[in-house]
Amino acid sequence: MTPARPNLTTELLLLLALATCWGASYTFIRIGVATIPPITLIAARTLIAGLVLLAIIRWRRLSLPRDAATWKRFLIQSCLNSAIPFTLIAWAEQTVDAGLATILNSTTPIFAFLIAGFLLRSEPLTGRKLFGVFAGMAGICLIIGLDALHGMGRQLLPQLSVVAASICYACAALFGRNFKGLDPMMPAAGSLLCGAALLIPASLIVEHPWQIAPSAPSILALLGLSVVSTALAFSIYFRLIQTLGSVGTTAQAYLRVPIGVGIGVAFLGEPLSPTAAIGLVCVVTGVMAMTIAPRKRAIAG
């Protein structure tokens, strides 16, 4: 018996929810790193999120896999999707402007498209998806405003760190297909707990977190980052990997730009680009091109 075909409207709404969760993370990180060092912030983020998901798994009367092979995959996923990219972005956001960081980090679908198409040959290199890549990037530049690109190269190492995080996210989306058949909460919780196991010792050695005095806004930002932008987001993320595929799921990187900019305008008083409306149309067009399959392919499948 073949499994029921996922409802596209539901999956696109989940993609929007994921983009919202991760779009808010830039504001949470900006507030958090003001008084919490980056490795400590991300170690706490992964630990809290992992424990939240573990509690939900227990409440559902399920249990995490116990075989070594699955936990090895969890460990690889944690390096690609949380421990390394989270830390790189948190470190970079101490100096890189939020707008430029958003542009650089939204390149994830491009890297996923190139790796899947040219290296792994697991995704067809269709003109529709290529159009989606360029439409999304054009929309991002219009939303953020081309002035945000003027800082390119001035802080080269932090900017390259954000690009490296984008490549990690692309690889993570492709590697995430190895968890097909598992409840989405299993790789979400397992990878986050592995990430915490890697980051907590690093935090203790490098940043001596017992010496810091985090502010109340930073603590609240950490909780929002952990519960909303990590625990909830990862549960949705691994569900979408199974339904929309790797490249389709990474298209949320385009959607989270207008969402992240909107949150910045509403809560941080950041200016809105006059070309934002045109950019939003380009972003939505790009996401649709990368996620909605042609009618013929849907019938044939």
What does this molecule look like?
The structure is a single chain. With 301 residues, the protein is mainly α. The chain has helices at residues 8-32, 38-59, 68-92, 98-105, 108-119, 127-144, 156-175, 185-206, 216-243, 246-250, 252-268, 276-291, 295-300. The protein has 13 helices and no strands. α1 (8-32) crosses α11 and α4 (98-105) packs antiparallel against α11. The longest helix has 28 residues, at 216-243. The chain is globular, with a radius of gyration of 19 Å.
Give me some keywords for this one.
301 residues, mainly alpha, globular, disordered C terminus, 0% strand, 13 helices
Which structural category fits the helices and strands? mainly alpha
User: Distance between termini?
Assistant: 15 Å
Helix content: over 70%
User: Largest sheet, if any?
Assistant: none
- Oligomeric nature of the chains: single chain
Q: Mean of the pLDDT scores?
A: 82
Strand content: under 5%
What is the number of helical segments per DSSP (H or I, 4+ residues)? Answer: 13
Shape: globular
Number of strands: 0
Unreliable spans: 296-301
Q: Work out the radius of gyration.
A: 19 Å
Q: Secondary-structure element order, as H and E?
A: HHHHHHHHHHHHH
